[in-house]
Specification:
The chain is mainly alpha-helical. Helix content is 36%, strand content 8%. Helix 2 packs antiparallel against helix 4. About 18% of the residues have low confidence.
């Protein structure tokens, strides 16, 4: 497994309101500085969800966005296919938060 490096954040369970404020945005790729997830971010989260990649604490924090509650991320403490699909939906503008 491979780990990618990026700045570190503290990960914890957050309420939907807190998740919206704390910057959970689905941006995982260190080269993506736009603040909006792109396809590369989706691929990284997919690799992590199937066990082919180990995320840094910061990446886990930003990847854990599913499920959405009241249109806001309500992190469940794990990175799985729900997060992959939600970030992909954000990339193709089917959902926003």
């Amino acid at each position: 497994m491979t780990a990618l490096s990026s700045p570190s954040f503290t990960s914890s369970q957050a309420s939907p309101a807190q998740a919206a404020l704390d910057g959970r945005n689905g941006v995982i790729d260190p080269s993506n500085t736009s603040g909006v997830p792109q396809l590369g971010d989706v691929l990284i989260v997919l690799k992590a969800a199937v066990g082919d990649l180990v995320l840094t604490p910061s990446q886990r924090f930003h990847a854990d966005v599913a499920p959405l509650r009241n249109g806001r991320p309500d992190p469940d403490g794990k990175v799985d296919l729900g997060d992959v699909l939600l970030i992909l939906r954000r990339v193709v503008h089917l959902v926003s938060w």
